[in-house]
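step: validate -> pass
step: tokenize input -> pass
step: predict -> running
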Amino acid sequence: MESRRCCKITRTECSDGSAPKYVKRYYRPRGAEACAAYHYPRCSQTEEMEEQPIQYEQNCQDLCFRGPEKRISPLLQLAIEN
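step: predict -> pass
step: emit ->
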């Protein structure tokens, strides 16, 4: 069963009516082979602690993938010219 932490959290307004502040977090798109970054709509520290969005790609890999599925996207990709 997929952890709810692996899902992308979306909202346009906080519970107090204010606009969220967007910060980088990670989730696993359904059927994807790697985690993806997205702009998490942060409203308050309390809400963030309840929702527990994934802060780092490595944590996303650990939480959302089983052993052989885990892989980290390289920071750089080198092109080989012939």
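step: describe -> The mean pLDDT is 87.
step: cleanup -> pass
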